[in-house]
Amino acid sequence: xxxxxxxxxxxxxxxxxxxxxxxxxxxxxxxxxxxxxxxxxxxxxxxxxxxxxxxxxxxxxxxxxxxxxxxxxxxxxxxxxxxxxxxxxxxxxxxxxxxxxxxxxxxxxxxxxxxxxxxxxxxxxxxxxxxxxxxxxxxxxxxxxxxxxxxxxxxxxxxxxxxxxxxxxxxxxxxxxxxxxxxxxxxxxxxxxxxxxxxxxxxxxxxxxxxxxxxxxxxxxxxxxxxxxxxxxxxxxxxxx
Length: 241
Fold this sequence. Notes:
By secondary structure, the chain is of the alpha+beta class. Helix content is about 35%, strand content about 25%.
């Protein structure tokens, strides 16, 4: 899958090579604040910001509903088609969450093709959930959305570094209260909860059940995300409950 190229390069998911963890970035900033080169660094940063803003406008112009692409640290990241087990895990969880949320009127659940606009970067999470008080402000023609309350990313070989790196820190920095990382290869789910501005691992599970902290009452068997029969049984339980 590729976005049409018009003058600016596209990058594969593994191409976000300049990601710097928050701790390292804070240390570098602290050094600059005590350096005579601070004015020069500020000029360079302003120049970079202008170029990045131009690229971001271009991204908004060329992205279409048929493409999965994200804008990360000044680069347009075009995603290739996913493998079957990635798609199944994503769709299984999306269906269970959507049916539960719809039945209880808790908010809105969206899947893949929804663009989340954060301060610097734009993402298309695999699954995301907005609480009702936030979702009620959405309009039928809206195409850009604020930070959700729950985000789920399903890992692939090409995106794992992003999901565990820049997205992990960016989602936390923008107040996403709960973050699930689903590994369809190992068939595990990691649940992270926001505590004092950073994610803390709540559970990493392969069997048993997992319960959302944000979606009130939503608890499913872990196997329902990876097994079709288990997913159908969990869905029937939700609809009958």
